[in-house]
Amino acid sequence: MSALDIIMILLRIAFGVLVPLSFVAVLVWMERRGAAYFQDRSGPNRCNIMGFRAGGLVQNLADAIKLVFKEDVVPGHIRHKFYFILAPMLVFITALLCFAVIPFADVLLVGGSSYIMQAIPTDIGILWFLAIVGFGVYGIILAGWSSHNKYGVLGGLRAAAQVISYEIPMGLALVSLLAVYGTVNLTEMAQYQGQLLFGFIPMWGVVLQPLGVIIFIVAAFAETNRTPFDLAEGESEIVAGFHVEYSSMKFALFFMGEYVAMFVSSALIVTLYFGSYQIPWLATDTLLAYARPVTVLLMIGLPVIGYFFGQWIKKNNSSHYRREHDPRIRETKVYIALLWSLVVLLEVICLGYLLFAAGGGADRILVALLQIGTFLLKTFLMCFVYVWVRWTLPRFRYDQLQKIGWEKLLPLSLLNIFITSAVIVAFG
Amino acid sequence: MIDTYLFFGLALLSVLGALGLILFRHPMNGAMSFVVTLISLAGLYALLSAKLIFAIQLIVYAGAIMSLILFIIMFLNIQEEDLPVDTARWFYLAGGIVLLAPVAGLLLKIVESLPGEAEPLTEAGFGGVKQVGLVLFQQWLLPFEIVSILLLVALVGAVVLAGKRG
């Protein structure tokens, strides 16, 4: 095992663990600011360090400190303390493990060996996801059961029944997708989506499986227990559902687990249906062939994006009334300076690449970085869809939820399998 | 080398889990220790380079079936006091051991007679999704279909039985 191998293993595992974790912070922020935006208010915008509010991101830090220093209560009536403590860990760990098989860039060829860009470079792909998602249910069941609380048990029952029943349409939507791609390996699926249909449409899952994508997204929403399927923690009925007895970091693990699960299922939806890391019309080979022109375009595009982003910061990061010694003016100036220094740094790196390193390994690393960026951008947008739906649709009733799952999604996904296989047999 | 350690660890865990299933009195403890057994069995399948069986063991047995059993235990909310007092427990256990001892002896003999191969016995790609699928749907298509009809019958039966109540 060479030094490069070890570095690549460490890098991939770090990516697989740290990216979902840092996305928790981003998603909590996005949820709050998104909710505020949809409800026409400001959201958390006062928390600051030396006057820097980072658009509300500092609020997360305050929340984290609050949760860490809260008293960690295990109520006296709980008999099975082991399961009570195990449950939040299970929820969090399973959510994090699901991300391990999702590819974030095409297979990277460096130093004569190839690296599959997944945290666990295995080819069982989607099966791993299905296996680990099943274990997430344990956490919910154990939490609800060991809380020994009526609300807890009700919430646990609802969540478990919901997750188990929505796994079926999800699995069936996957079956027709697998028939299209002909593989369970997520990296191969992503490579498949780099092709072009009729020579000009990107062959993304959403184009090939328009019905499947709807079924899968609905089922994924239900799997993550997000509104409109968050009966498990319906505040108006059962307080907080299965995590009603939890406090401090144990609650925080549930909370973070929910956001990690949301990130992972967004990443999975992107991987399966929205082209994964593929930039439309620019498959890996094309990108490699045109690495230099792409870099030049990037160097032109970066200042333009920076300019508009700066204008946006200037417009939004201002006081709405006259203030003496307005601290936000200084804040905005610092942000814009930071933004431009980032742009300049990236320009210098691009220039250095063009002048000294272009060709061979550097090209491949550049392409991999571009693909990672694309993947994260797509996942970010998909996460926004989650927030968007949460603050737009009201919660279902429980019988409605089960009816949608069993009477609408299940027949639709079966129909989808028949149509898909007929088309594949006829044309493939 | 690490394979050997992994094998011993997983084998130990699976035996411990199975023991827990029998010896724990509370159904939830029994179910959870059985989950440990099922997961370690999945690990053993993975050591045998049977990737698909590994995934299916996790999805079907450790994931779906056991979560349904846990769900039922939670739903009925069985506590220690609800359980019947079985006095003849140790008697049954001893009887079971006496009955199973010859079978265990037979198994040990089989294990002893296995060739001590150090070379890998499988060719590349063994146990992958594609390879198992090809074998399953070409050589074993008829048994596969018969088994799936059997499962369908069980499914329909469950629906009919459940429908009678309402």
Describe the structure.
The complex is a heterodimer of chains A (428) and B (166). In chain A, α1 (3-38) runs parallel beside α14 and α2 (58-69) packs across α10 (248-273). Chain A has 428 residues and is mainly α. Chain A has helices at 3-38, 58-69, 81-98, 126-146, 150-181, 186-192, 205-208, 210-223, 235-238, 248-273, 284-289, 291-316, 327-357, 361-390, 398-427; strands at 108-110, 113-115, 196-197, 201-202. Chain A is globular. Chain A has a two-stranded antiparallel sheet with strand order 1-2. Chain A has one domain (3-35, 56-278, 359-427). Chain B starts with a helix and ends with a helix. Chain B is 78% helix and 0% strand. Chain B is globular. Chain B is mainly α and 166 residues long. Chain B has two domains: 1-83, Up-down Bundle (Four Helix Bundle (Hemerythrin (Met), subunit A)), CATH 1.20.120; 128-166. Chain B is built from six helices and no strands. The A-B interface holds A 80, 83, 122-124, 127-128, 130-135, 137-138, 141-142, 144-145, 153, 156-157, 160-161, 164, 167, 184 and B 28, 32, 35, 51-52, 54-56, 58-59, 62-64, 66-68, 70-71, 73-75, 77, 128-129.
